[in-house]
Write a structure and sequence with these properties.
single chain; 140 residues; mainly alpha; elongated; transmembrane helix
Length: 140
């Protein structure tokens, strides 16, 4: 394998890793907004006006550090899949769940829904990036 080929593979991994970690948060935020809009259309009208409550956005105040936890979560998922250790995803999810359990249990503010939606979107996004990186690496 030539040096150029190795460098190309490293660039692919770094680029898609950066996409997974840095842009995954934007994907999560967009899904939260979509979920809020969907919920708003499902709420009953009160006094002729639709209630405008955004529990997923409000729940962010209870789940502090979510942005940084998301970065680390996506990095762990991307890395685990890329090195062929998909069990690492389960390890990351268990650690995250145990760490967040007290906040989710004590809250009735939509924190559980935010946790579940954010985790699913984050893991799916990082997984897609890892699979794309693995596929591109195998092309060379």
């Amino acid at each position: 394998m030539t040096v150029l080929l190795v460098i190309a593979k490293i660039v692919i991994v770094l680029a898609l890793g950066a996409v997974a970690v840095l842009l995954g948060g934007r994907a999560v935020t967009r899904v939260f907004r979509l979920a809020e809009r969907t919920r708003a259309t499902e709420l009953p009208e009160q006094n002729g006006a639709l209630e405008t409550v955004a529990p997923l956005t409000y729940a962010a105040t209870y789940l502090r550090g979510g942005e940084w936890i998301g970065y680390l979560e996506r990095l762990a998922v991307f890395g685990a899949l890329l090195v062929g250790f998909p069990e690492g995803i389960a390890v990351a999810m268990v650690v995250k769940s145990f760490a967040r359990y007290p906040e989710i249990k004590a809250s009735s503010t939509g924190a559980a829904e935010r946790f579940i939606i954010g985790t699913f979107v984050s893991v799916l996004f990082a997984s897609a990036c890892a699979l794309a990186a693995a596929w591109l690496i195998r092309l060379f």
